[in-house]
Sequence to fold (582 residues):
Amino acid sequence: MNEVSYIQRPNRPLRFYALLYLAFLYIPVLFLPLFSLNDSIYIAFPLKDFTLKWYAQMFANEPMFAALMNSFRVGVATSVLATFLGIFAAKAVTRYRMPGRAPLVTFIMLPLVIPGVIFGVALLILMSRLGIRLSLYTITLGHILICVPFAMATLIPRFEGFDKSIEEASADLGENMWWTFWRVTFPIVFPGIIASLLLCFTISFDEFIMAFFLSGTDPTLPLFMWGQLRFPAKLPGVLALGSVILVVSFLVVFFSQWIRNRGIQSKNRSGA
Amino acid sequence: MSKAIAAVASVPMHRGRMRGGLGALFLRSEPLRGYTLLTPTLLIMAFGICIPFAILIAMSFWTQQGFDFDMTLTLANYSTAFEQPIYEALMLRSLAISGTCTIATVLLSYPMAYYVAFHVHQHKMIWIILITLPFWTSYLLRVFAWKIILGYNGVINSGLKGLGLIDQPLEFLLYSQSAVMITLAHAWAAFAILPMYVSLEKIDRTLLEAATDLGDGPVARFLRVTLPLSLPGIIAATLIMFIPTVGDYITPALLGGPDGVMIGNLIQAQFGKVNNWPMGAALAIAMMITVAVCALTFMLVTRKAKEHIE
Fold:
């Protein structure tokens, strides 16, 4: 059967609609960088002069840097631990036939559908009953719970995407489980691991609700921004900060998705 | 030596039953190895999901006393939740806002999913990445962006004023239910598109050709083949967006104003300035049960409808 059939004729109105849809997705977000370069304390048209002073102010803002470092530490710890747990889980569910596998996977994926407020307060209650002081550690725990489903969802296609017999060959040729993983499985799933690390870091870095309920005295960056939103005079500073975060998140996520999908595509092309 | 030969011989055979050497029972039992690997993840998730929710349920039967709790079990919180009209009103409003917004987003996103699945032939991945990219960026910032657009002196108002179309800023834009709905739709669009895209992408294209060859026009073909086959994706998109948005509280807090307050704000307030944790727990449980009932009803109705069609 020929590849391009008459069903797949180009559809101009639909294409126009799709582009409009993309515009709706992106344009609102682009106002943040636009106004962050505007020399006025009021966020309104018409635009005044071009300025970089909000960015200059941002670099002189010490509490913001403290919050940035907090977010960074939480993000790194979260992404490493969640990806680690995700690797174990993804390998388990793709490599072994286990009874009850589907309900277990559903259980691990649950945080995706639990409303953030409820998950947040439930963990807050847990911490208070256990007498654990709220800190960056409790935020990290909350973020790990949210990130493991994403890590697993990112890693499972990588584990499914290659022939199990390669691992078996390695095991049969005398490598033990750990060396087989390190020398055979790991290099193959490596792009998935990088993608998972980057995604989990971004999620944690941008996450607000869990951090809102589980933070002690040290704020993460979203909490810091939330606090700044109350002061109209600080809005341009928040815009500058937000623009930087947006650009970095876009780049990180684009890179991670690109790595992940490139790997899978090239596999599809070379494999049958 | 014989071990090596046995090993090599076993390579083409799947699952390597003939694996020799140190193959203890543990290594031979697939489920056991699988469970062992899964244990750390499962333990953490169980600790983070089951225990907190168990305590949440228990707490909903307690009473707040100053900064401590009276742990005698009582249904008082639930009866308050049922009797006071404010709770019911906010719950219904949350369901209405989230439901309307979900239906609108799913309807508007379906053509997009359809376009990417059927009409994009090259660079499909770029499109998928473009659609999902905004979803990964800070939710807080995206809500904030809408505040800039819809605000009293925001993009729309100052823009329209600059063009001379209006004299006074349009006040209904910000701090309203529609502001909450627009923002939620924007924030969750990727979640709505992806499941529908996946189910549309899976449709066997030869079925469409068969329908055409048998005389169906584009509309009939869509209604009889494409739409029914993509129904699971539509259902998944609806649920995946509806369930979390009912409890959203950032968007209503920043953009809702008094008219746009939702149940999530009320729950948060119980753990904040109101300081009545057991009441907050009871509201959280009540909300989860309501959402679960809605989701299950929706699934049952769609299943029945599907059976009816078939």
